[in-house]
Design a protein that fits this description.
Helices cover 39% and strands 16% of the residues. By secondary structure, the protein is of the alpha/beta class. The strands form two sheets. Strands 3-4-5-6-7-8-9-10 form an eight-stranded parallel barrel, surrounded by six helices. A two-stranded antiparallel ribbon has the order 1-2.
Length: 315
């Protein structure tokens, strides 16, 4: 089913669902087949998703290279977002938002993506060693040069977000948000709403948890992102996580759909959420993610999910 929910804005249209490419990089998520990853991008673009989110750190540039290959001949139809500021060249992955590093990072991203401009260029993580005004001044210069069109930030807390806003017009904030991670509701989402900053969620399906794919608490290798990036895989949280997934499955059965569809529909309904980033590394995953989204959830169903989710968050 084609995802028709689109947002109109002066920069064009951005689909309510954005294709995430971290898993396509080939690190932190186990093996990803490049041919299937390219098919996944094509499938997304053919079925109403017109926005792709990537980053140099995803496979040390490999995800960007795949995206660049996939969008050849389609560039003008794609809202392309990538990031800067994690040093992949030293392999230390330190945060670096200095103007000189961003200039290098941007130049390499443009080459890998086979394009001469980025629609949305985002600071991947805040860099406490570089004054934010220096970072934003560099991004404004790159915008004036036509290398980037919009400026965004990712993983910035409230104070960091406000400071960046004072230095440059921000298009967006990308942050972790799902039924399993709701801290942005307290103040971050209100700041975005009040200042017309678009909010993009990542981790929208909780690394697959909210699809119902894990019946038992899974175990992952040390280098797998699910072993260190997502807290809800830990034994402390798992019993209540399973109760939430049971609630998603029950709601999905009543709607004739899948648990992940319910989780994404809940997220899209949250005030201030512009689009949800959903990762995939196969055509099948893309089609599963976009089918039926969003479905209508009534007040009772929303309250049930809020209750089950809140129990996890209070752990």
């Amino acid at each position: 089913m084609r995802n028709e929910a689109m947002h109109e804005k002066s920069d064009g249209t951005i689909s309510r669902m954005i294709l995430g490419t971290w898993a396509m990089g080939g690190n932190h998520w186990g093996f990803c087949d490049d041919v299937e990853a390219l098919r996944a991008i094509d499938t997304a673009l053919d079925n109403g998703i017109n926005a792709i989110d990537t980053a140099p750190v995803y496979g040390d540039g490999h995800a960007e290279e795949l995206v660049g290959k996939a969008i050849q001949g389609k560039r003008d139809k794609v809202f392309l977002a990538t990031k800067c500021g994690l040093d992949i060249y030293s392999r230390k992955y330190e945060r670096n938002l200095s103007p000189s590093y961003i200039e290098r990072d941007l130049s390499q991203s443009l080459k890998r993506l086979k394009t001469d401009y980025i629609d949305l260029y985002q600071c991947h993580w805040p860099d406490p060693q570089t004054p934010v005004e220096e970072t934003m001044a560099a991004l404004l210069r790159f915008r004036e040069e036509g290398k980037i069109r919009l400026i965004g930030v990712s993983n910035f807390n409230d104070d960091e977000l406000r400071e960046a806003m004072r230095c440059a017009p921000l298009f967006s904030l990308q942050s972790h948000y799902s039924l399993l991670e709701r801290s942005v509701e307290q103040s971050t989402l209100p700041i975005c709403r009040e200042n017309d900053i678009n909010f993009f969620s990542y981790g929208s399906l909780g690394a697959g948890v909210l699809t119902g794919k894990y019946r038992e608490q899974p175990r992952f290798s040390r280098g797998d992102a699910r072993s260190f990036f997502y807290r809800f895989f830990k034994p402390r949280y798992w019993p209540k996580v399973r109760l939430l997934v049971d609630g998603l499955e029950e709601t999905a059965r009543s709607k004739g759909t899948r648990p992940g569809v319910i989780a994404l529909s809940w997220l899209i309904k949250q005030p201030g959420v512009r689009s949800v980033i959903v990762g995939a590394r196969s055509s099948e995953q893309v089609l599963d993610n976009i089918a039926d989204v969003p479905v209508e959830l009534n007040a009772r169903e929303m309250e049930l999910l809020d209750h089950l989710s809140g129990a996890i968050y209070s752990c």
